[in-house]
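Q: Joint fold for the lines below.
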Amino acid sequence: MARSALTREEVLDAAAALVRRHGPAALTMRGLAAELGTAVTSIYWHVGNRESLLDALVERTVLEMGAIRPSGRTPAERIVSVARLLRRELRERPHLIAMVHERGLTERMFLPAQQALVQEVGAAGLRGARAADAVRAIQFQIVGYLLVERNRERSPAQSPGEGELWGPDAAPGDPALSRALASPPDPERLFLLSVRALTRALLAPDPASRG
Amino acid sequence: MARSALTREEVLDAAAALVRRHGPAALTMRGLAAELGTAVTSIYWHVGNRESLLDALVERTVLEMGAIRPSGRTPAERIVSVARLLRRELRERPHLIAMVHERGLTERMFLPAQQALVQEVGAAGLRGARAADAVRAIQFQIVGYLLVERNRERSPAQSPGEGELWGPDAAPGDPALSRALASPPDPERLFLLSVRALTRALLAPDPASRG
DNA sequence: ACCTGAACACCGTTCAAGT
DNA sequence: ACCTGAACACCGTTCAAGT
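A: Joint structure:
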């Protein structure tokens, strides 16, 4: 039972493991103390209180999202590759990402990606305010899509499900459309399709045609 | 002090008011009972428990998002008008929308909007699987953008803020770009710009050019 | 059918006391 | 500098008892 001195890192590691497995609600100070084999109050000495413990976990997660290396030949391809990388990273830490989001740090977490996008948009020939708009639009698109996708996965069987709502006469005269909407989308395919479409529109030489 | 019989509606109204003002964390069963002037346990008789009380509030919110009437002359304009309407509705109920999201019902909440989009995409000449892709891409885009925007607003002063990170040499050779990224975006403008760009790309006659 | 208070098993947090 | 148990003020929930 002899345990070496408790450290802040040790507390954070145990807390992160708990959150990764069962989500933040499963992280109680008493449960964490039990896991670590110490008194509850020791944890307070090392990390302050529960709120700042969660803050520290979030901070860690933000730092872990640091390195983004685009790949591909054209700027458009490289932008899409950034999108893919982000998608994979996010899907590995669903609970922690949700916490980053709740704390309003989503934007900060994506700053490395934003810098990569700045690079690519510049390589595509965009400058100044128009380049900034393009970077932000793509960034919002990627992050937003991933949030929606996460939401879909977490959701229980929706009632009424899309399947029921998109019966044969939901889209009159287009049974193929009804059928397509009645079956669940392929998230990866739709993600790439969306990012490609937006990128294409934003990098297009002439911005005059406004919908 | 004579109070008329407590009803389920009354409980939901008081709970919704509490959540609208101070968020779900401020909704405690004991506090709600105090507000209503009853014993805590009476609430349990009417709504089950806290979890199903929150479920009921979410259900209400989903139903309130029912009516969507597009406006505008072209399909593209009408799609953008749907986006605008959704944005306004969402911004009026931030806490409740977050709860809908947490419960994984975001998609269901947007079904009326989806139906409007189906209509417009069809009017623009898209059919079958390609129409379904366009509807979903636009829907994900709108919902995702609004989630990200909400997140930005809720976030405290970000450290380090974008202002500090986008100093003059962040985008070498393009000071105008650096300046644009250092100042906060105009969310409404960026929203419209994004939706328009994606819509333009998706409704374009030739889908052959893939990034 | 509806309401009640008492009790239970949990929380996060503080604090004085230890070494 | 680090750890501890006891105590406080909260939770959500259950239950037997009232009308």
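Q: Anything notable?
A: Chain B touches chain A through 68 residues (CB under 8 Å). Residues 5-6, 38-42, 45-46 of chain B lie near DNA strand C (CB under 10 Å from a C1').
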